[in-house]
Amino acid sequence: MRKSIYYITVLFLLFSQALCAAPAKGKSSKGTWKGATRNIHHVAFWGGGGYSGLLNNYEYSKFTGGGGGLLGVGYEYRYDHFILDAGAEFRMFSSLDKVTFPSTYQVALMADGYNQTMNYTFGDPFRENHVVGQAMVPLMLGGRWDTWYFLIGAKAGYTVLGNYSQKGTYTTTITDNDAQDPNWRDISHGTVTDAPYAQKGKIGYGLDVTASAEVGVNLNGLLSQDWNSRNNARKHPVHMRLAAFVDYGVLSMGQAQEGPMAIVDESGISSRSLHNSYWANGRLNSLLAGVKFTVLLQMNKPQQPKPAKPTMVVYVRDENTDKGIASATVAMKQTDAKKPRTIRRATNAKGAMVAKMNAGSYELSVSHPDYISKDAQLEHGDWGDTLSLRLTPRPDFRLYVRDAKTDSLMRAEVIFTNTAEKKTIATIYTDSLTGYAQQHLPINVPIQIRIKAPDHITVTDKIADIGGEMTYRLEPIVKKKPIVLRNLFFATNRATILPESEPELQNLYNLLIEHPEIRIRITGHTDNVGSDRFNQSLSEQRANSVRFELIKRGIDADRIEAEGKGKTEPVATNETDEGRALNRRVEFMIL
Questions:
Q1: 40 lies in a domain?
Q2: Which of 342, 369, 391 marks a domain boundary?
């Protein structure tokens, strides 16, 4: 029996831990929780009564039992479905045993010279009743649901009150041991029949430890909704419950064996308590089972768990292959929140992002280095939402770099710059064998490309199509060879440099910065339209405009010469518009 109680207790403790650790369930469609509350404290008052007894081990005793009751006050802690009870309890109960005496008790008498024996025989029934009062400290664990609950645990205490009383009858006979005729010796005489017998006294039982269990119903759930509403509105709501309970002593309260129950001497017959004799064989276990009523005064208001946030799932896929895109960044901003903040999550290997988010209006932005970003708006509801977004792969800007003199492919450094923010986007190198390179570039951003290689003049250009393909030719640094600044533009018939000439001016500036040992001569040329004098003056002015621009940017004036040739050195026919455009040029030469 004791082992069974031990195993039951261990299993219950494990079950209680599981209840405490398990998340509360029951979310409604509006995001609230049903039933479960957390961290509730109560002051508990209880009372009960039922069947009771003290179990002994005497083979000639018939246990009948009695009635008893208990009163207690304590503390109850509740966390979700888990409850813990502790407190102080006083219980009082009675126990009745019907005892059968196995033999007649005798004592020798010497009266008036006669040798006689006094015989005492207890008749049936002989009753012994016990009244016990105990101060107990219960410690109980259990679970509580909307309708029912249970508790299991132990109670330890000390017996502060122990009384017993005995009632019965007995018969006395006298045997004359000196009779001359042996046949008459045992003939009794002087018989007293069915004399009443009564005895009472106190007895100490000491420490008592009981295994205890109860199971019952929460009575509030049986009352009207109106009553419960008014009750819950109180500062300290009241909870009531009714249960069946049982307490069984696992520690024997039997006292030291002091001999048999009946005691006979010359003064007559007397008795002690059955539970204080060796007839009980040392066993004495308390028992109290019945019905228990408990009132709980709730000390704090229920603290409802926070509503579970609805789940938001975003799938990010490749527009062409429909495969999930891993490591895409999903930025989410709740626009209807009092203090909007942006939350960022990365997609997993399958292209999915899962997050618990408050219901509301959201702005989503999905980005990935290899794809064009995409924005979306979403109304995130109480039941959760799933959104699928397909991203377009970012186009590659492709380029080849060749030597302008040999037309051979070459290795070069390529720098991409965001001109609006003046920040470098990327730096790559063309392949030394193929002269090829490619790079993902952001859209809607002004981008400048700069290509440079040892012993070659750096080229700077603006990228108009981030998905296009370009071939750049780098001029080798060769002295005494005229190099045309083809992307240098002037106002018509004037020496004013137009803004679109900036990349070409930057190329020439970079050459002088990267090679401080170089000196150059800038030469202006015109077509044959107009007088010789006008064309000569215009060519000189345009060459000097370029020189002055470089000096303004920090180049030493001694490193730059300027001259004009007018219309004297055409490179194409002046009979066509195309030819005249080629003749209107500015060149530079490394000296």
A1: yes
A2: 391
- Cα–Cα distance list, 422 to 155, 268, 350, 498 (Å): 80, 122, 37, 21
Give the containing element (helix H, strand E) for 489.
Answer: none
Q: What is the 3-state secondary structure (H, E, C) of 537-577?
A: HHHHHHHHHHHHHHHHCCCCHHHEEEEECCCCCCCCCCCCH
The radius of gyration computed from the CA coordinates of the chain, to the nearest angstrom, equals 55
pLDDT-wise least confident of 34-43, 294-303, 420-429, 488-497 = 34-43
- Where do the DSSP E strands lie in 145-284? 148-176, 188-202, 207-218, 238-249, 262-265, 268-271
Residue 305: inside a domain: no
Per the CB < 8 A criterion, the answer to whether 2 and 250 are in contact is yes
Q: Which domain holds residue 411?
A: 395-476
φ, ψ of residue 202 in degrees (nearest 5): -110, 150
- The tokens 């799938």 sit on which residue? 315
Interatomic CA distance for residues 584 and 491, integer angstroms: 12
Nearest CA to 395 among 442, 428, 327? Answer: 442
Answer positive or negative: Cα dihedral of 546, 548, 554, 555. positive
Please check the confidence at residue 232 and state whether its pLDDT lies above 60.
yes
Closest CA to 27 of 383, 385, 302: 383
Bridge-partner residues for 490, per DSSP? 497
* Side-chain-side CA neighbours of residue 538 (13 Å): 23
Dihedral-angle region of residue 568 (phi above 0 means left; psi in -120 to 50 means alpha; beta otherwise): alpha
Which of 92, 91, 88 lies closest to 44 in space, CA to CA?
88
Q: By the 8 A CB rule, do 368 and 393 touch?
A: no
Q: Is the model's pTM score more than 0.90? A: no
- Specify the range with the lowest mean pLDDT, choosing from 103-117, 247-261, 283-297, 468-482: 103-117
Would you say residue 507 has pLDDT above 60? Answer: yes
Paired tokens of 388? 């699928």
**CA 381, 386, 391 angle in degrees (round to 5)?**
130
Q: Please tell me what DSSP assigns to residue 535.
A: H
Q: Whole-angstrom Cα distance, residue 127 to residue 62? A: 10
Q: How far is CA 261 from the centre of its chain?
A: 66
What's the chain's average pLDDT?
85
Cα dihedral 521, 522, 527, 532 in deg (nearest 10): -70
DSSP H or E stretch at residue 502: helix 502-514
Same domain, yes or no: 319 and 253: no
**Torsion 285-286-291-294 (CA) sign:** negative
Can you tell me whether residue 15 is helix, strand or coil?
Answer: helix
> How many C-alpha atoms does 408 have within 13 Å on its Cβ side?
6
Structure-block tokens of residue 311: 């789940």
**Residue 272 resides in a domain:** yes
Flag whether 507 is in a domain.
yes
Same domain? For 211 and 293 the reply is yes
**pLDDT at site 144:** 92
Quick one: pLDDT at residue 481?
A: 87
Give DSSP secondary structure letters for 440-483. E--SSS-EEEEEE-TTB--EEEEES-TT-EEEEEEPB--BT--E
